[in-house]
Input
Amino acid sequence: MPQPRSETVPAVHWKSFLSDWWPAAVGLLAMFVPTFLSLANGMWSTESYAHGPIILALALWLLWRQWPDMMAAIGEPRPSAAGWPLLAAALFCYVIGRSQGIQAGELLAFVLALVSLLLLGWGGRALRFQWFPIFFMLFMIPLPGPLVAALTMPMKMAVSYMTELILFTAGYPIARSGVILQIGQYQLLVADACAGLQTLLTLEALGLFYLNVVRHTAVLRNVVLAVLIIPISFTANVIRVIALTLITYYFGDAAGQGFLHGFAGMVLFISALILILSVDTLLQTLVARRARRAVGSPA
Output
């Protein structure tokens, strides 16, 4: 009778780890707990940046989840001196960000500090193993305002146009002027939070997180799904604005701008997740069909 394979990934001795690295842990907490508290009471409490704590939590979970595999893969740690200049850069960004109230600088400092600690403690192989959680954290850093403004307007125009086209085709009394929708007696301004760059980046992050978790072996499936994340994100934005427009049309402006506006945000993420899963299922079917044809074809 075959015996089950033993687990090859060694257990991580967290007590030993904490005893060696508690000064760094205390330093990180002292520096960045005030930062995250400020963000929770400020930027992260707004609709445009509400994805920040979600990105942070998911990234830290990925780091923790991959840690035993990382330790097994790297074997003996080989600390890299490249971590020192990165640590200096992290401290510089933190001082500038904290003193000048630039929260993007503080968040960048947090990411750089984690990278430097990985290099100083375990070396470049550890960083290569944990590259995705580190990269994923970049999605919680707000982009410069002028860049966001320049890229957001075309996106809002496109979302407004598609919303008008779909609802007009469905028979609703809707018209559009720029990013202002007129449906019945109500006017709606398609705001940055509804169809802006930050929303698109949030959905991009959701799609990339899904790809990292499922880790398909088929390269074509991964590439196609990664490319389709952008139109999926746009479609989810359109669904959200349509939902908000219909809520306003049927229940009034107060309902649209009040509690149900937050519900429309849930519609955004739920619809994006459903679209990603649907497209992934379709790709799985196509890849499986292609594999069956390859097996059945004569040599």
